Amino acid sequence: MDFKIIHKDTHSRARCGLLTLERGTIETPIFMPVGTQGSVKSLSPQELDECGAQIILGNAYHLYLRPGLQIIEESGGLHKFISWPKPILTDSGGYQIFSLALLRKVKDEGVLFQSHLDGARHLLTPEDVVRIQNVLGSDISMPLDECVSYPASFEQAQKAVERTTLWALRSKKEFEKRKQGILFGIAQGSTYKDLRKRSINELLEIGFDGYAIGGLSVGEPQDLRYNILHFAIDDFPSGSPRYMMGVGLPEDILEAVSMGVDMFDCVVPTRYGRNGTAFTSQGKLTVRNGEFAHDQRPLDEKCGCTCCRNFSRAYLRHLFNAGEILGIRLVSYHNIYFFLHLMREARLAIREDRFSAFKENFMARCE
Q1: What stretches of the chain adopt beta strand conformation (E)?
Q2: Which DSSP string corresponds to 293-318?
Q3: Which of 116, 145, 274, 327 pairs as cysteine with 164 (C-beta 3.0–4.6 A)?
Q4: Each residue's pLDDT tens digit, 72-126
Q5: Greatest extent of the chain over all pairs of C-alpha atoms, in Å
Q6: Is 91 a catalytic residue?
Q7: How confident is the model at residue 208 (pLDDT cuts 50, 70, 90)?
Q8: Burial letters for 29-56: b for 16+ Cβ neighbours within 10 Å, e otherwise?
Q9: CATH 3.20.20.105 boundaries in the chain
C-alpha cells in the first residue's frame, strides 16, 4: 500500500490524495458504493464503472452467511465471483451482527449470535473475521469491533472501547500471518471525547494501514456528530487514509471532507433510489410525486449520467407508478453517479484551493 497526500486546501483541512492498492489506485476523497451482499443494489459492475466507481464495499457477515465462503472460494474469490476487478473494502459485519442478529451474546472471545436468515447459531472471533476476509480476497479489511448505539452510557462506551482494542490487537496478529491487502483500525468511543482519544491512541500503538471512525451516524444529533469528528480527526495520522464509516448524505460527506476525512460509504444513494428520490444539484427530488407527471426535463439538467441524458421526470414517474424495475435502476444509477461526480468536483476544488466556497455553494443550493 502507498498513500500520498497530493494537495491540501489552504482554507480548510480538506485534502486530496492517492491510495495505491494491488488492484488499482484510488483518488481521495472517495465515496464507496455499498455492495453488501456482493451487489450494489440494482446496478451491474459495468454500470458502476460507467459511474466512475473506483472501489466498492462488501460485508463479511452477509457473505459469510450467504452464499458462504466455500462457494466464493470455489469461484476464485469475491472479485471474480461478482466480476469486479477493482479494489473492494469489506466491513467486518460487526454492526450488522449487533443490529440484525436474532439473538447475540458479546464476550471477549467474540460474538455468539443467531443468523437473521435461518436462526442458526454462529460464533465469530476477531481471528475468524480476518480469515473470512482473507478468503474473500479483500483489498481493505476491517476488524471486528463493538459499536454501541446512541445514546450509550459512559460505562457501555468504555467497555466497547476496551473490547474493540482487544479485538484490534488480535485481528492485527492474525492479519500478519498472511498480509493480504491492508488492514484498517476502527476507533470507537460513542460521543465521549476522552474515550475517542483513548481508542485512537490504543489503535496507534498497535499500528494499522489506515484508520476509521466508527460509531457515528447511529442516531446522534448532527451537531454532536460533527463535534466529535472535529475533535477526533486530528488524532489520526496525517499520512494515513481516514475513513468515516456509514456516512452518508452529501452535506455530511462534504462537512467531513472539510475536516480531513478521505473515505466514505453509505447505502443512501441506492436506498433513496429505490424509493424514487433523486439527489440533484438543486437538492433532493421525489420523482414519484404528481407534480412531475408532465415534466419533460431530466432529473438534473446539470447531470451527464445515462439516466439524465435519455429519460424525463415524467417517464421516471410513470415507471415507479407502474411498478417497473427500470425506474429503481435508473434513479439508483443517477444517485450513484451524482455521489461519485460530487467527489470528483470536491477533489478538483481542493486542488484549486476553493473547497470551502464549493461546499458553501452546494449547501446553499440544496437547502
Answers
A1: 2-8, 15-21, 24-28, 30-33, 56-59, 88-91, 104-107, 110-114, 121-124, 140-141, 182-187, 210-213, 242-244, 263-266, 277-280, 283-286
A2: TT--S-S-TT--SHHHHH--HHHHHH
A3: 145
A4: 999 999 999 999 999 999 999 888 887 776 778 889 999 998 888 998 999 999 9
A5: 61
A6: yes
A7: very high
A8: bbbbbbbbbbbbbbbebebbeebbbbbb
A9: 2-266
Catalytic residue among 91, 128, 145, 209: 91
Confidence (pLDDT) at 366: 82
pLDDT at 95: 82
Point out which residues pair with 124 in neighbouring strands: 111
Helix (H) or strand (E) holding 213: strand 210-213
> Looking at 128, 139, 262, 265, which residue is catalytic?
265
- Any idea which architecture 2-266 has in CATH? Alpha-Beta Barrel (3.20)
Q: What is the pLDDT of residue 43?
A: 98
Q: How far apart are CA 32 and CA 36, in angstroms?
A: 11
Per-residue model confidence as pLDDT tens digits over 227-236: 999 999 999 9
